């Protein structure tokens, strides 16, 4: 096996090990998060997910997704969600701006009783910290998906000295090590091969799957979307979206 194939195998092994850890160690909290989402769906509430930079990928992966809940909405912050902003470093800078989260929430449709999922690998920047703080102050339930290791090994960048994990109703630990890189190799100075997107996306899908199961156990048909690339998929999705139009914001 060549060096490149060996490294690929090591990366897969590292990712699998992280997934197993999260499965085994976060099972109870993932169940609680899925149940909270199911409670919110049943009560007529709305569900939003937010992440900045690459942390947004796991949030986006649950929105308008075949096999996913139609009620998952993305809370967007201009210049922060994704890496399409120029220069790309601006997104990282905006994460450290105090007060931005409050302005976003004040102009969003979120209301007391809704659920906001905040995804931040480090959980140390002002934006995710204040997003969770302000959301709870507004009466929202907050699920935080973060790496607890950062709160234990790095310094908070928020004036309060706190982290995302300190302002959540439920904290899901991704187990990602500080630096988000799984591999090292002599001759390469920097560690490489991040796994946070793999793990956080899996956690988000596990939470959504749990919510669907809880709703079904209660006799409620979960509002799931089908693939638009299978026969009847568009008709199915159109019906679901019409039924839940008042809680779906990515169509507006």
Automatic annotation (TrEMBL):
What is the organism of origin for this protein?
Streptomyces chrestomyceticus
Residue ranges annotated for the SIS domain, each copy included: 37-225
Q: Which HAMAP family match?
A: UPF0309
- Give the matching PANTHER family: PHOSPHOHEPTOSE ISOMERASE, SEDOHEPTULOSE 7-PHOSPHATE ISOMERASE / DNAA INITIATOR-ASSOCIATING FACTOR FOR REPLICATION INITIATION
* Pfam families linked: SIS_2
Q: Tell me the organism's taxonomic lineage.
A: Bacteria, Bacillati, Actinomycetota, Actinomycetes, Kitasatosporales
Protein name in UniProt: UPF0309 protein RB636_05065
The Swiss-Prot or TrEMBL record describes its family as follows: Belongs to the UPF0309 family.
Which residue spans adopt a coiled-coil conformation according to this UniProt entry?
none
Q: Which domain of life is it from?
A: Bacteria
The record's CDD domains line, in alphabetical order, gives: SIS_RpiR
């Amino acid at each position: 096996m060549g060096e490149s194939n060996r490294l690929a195998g090591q990366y897969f092994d590292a990712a699998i090990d992280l997934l197993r850890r999260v499965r085994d160690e976060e099972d109870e909290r993932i169940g609680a998060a899925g149940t909270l989402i199911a409670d919110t769906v049943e009560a007529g509430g709305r569900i939003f997910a937010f992440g900045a930079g690459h942390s947004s990928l796991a949030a986006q992966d649950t929105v308008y997704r075949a096999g996913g809940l139609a009620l998952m909405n993305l809370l967007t912050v201009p210049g922060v969600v994704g890496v399409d902003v120029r220069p790309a470093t601006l997104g990282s800078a905006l994460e450290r701006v105090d007060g931005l989260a409050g302005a976003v929430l004040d102009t969003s449709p979120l209301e007391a009783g809704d659920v906001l999922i905040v995804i931040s690998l480090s959980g140390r920047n002002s934006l995710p910290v204040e997003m969770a703080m302000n959301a709870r102050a507004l009466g929202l339930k907050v699920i935080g998906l973060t790496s607890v290791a950062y709160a234990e090994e790095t310094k908070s960048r928020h004036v309060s000295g706190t982290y995302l994990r300190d302002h959540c109703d439920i904290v899901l630990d991704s187990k990602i090590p500080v630096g988000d890189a799984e591999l090292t190799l002599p001759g390469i100075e920097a560690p490489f091969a991040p796994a946070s997107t793999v793990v956080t996306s899996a956690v988000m899908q596990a939470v959504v799957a749990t919510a669907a199961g809880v709703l079904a156990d209660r006799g409620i048909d979960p509002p799931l979307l089908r693939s638009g690339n299978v026969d009847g998929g568009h008709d199915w999705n159109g019906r679901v979206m019409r039924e839940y139009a008042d809680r779906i914001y990515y169509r507006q």
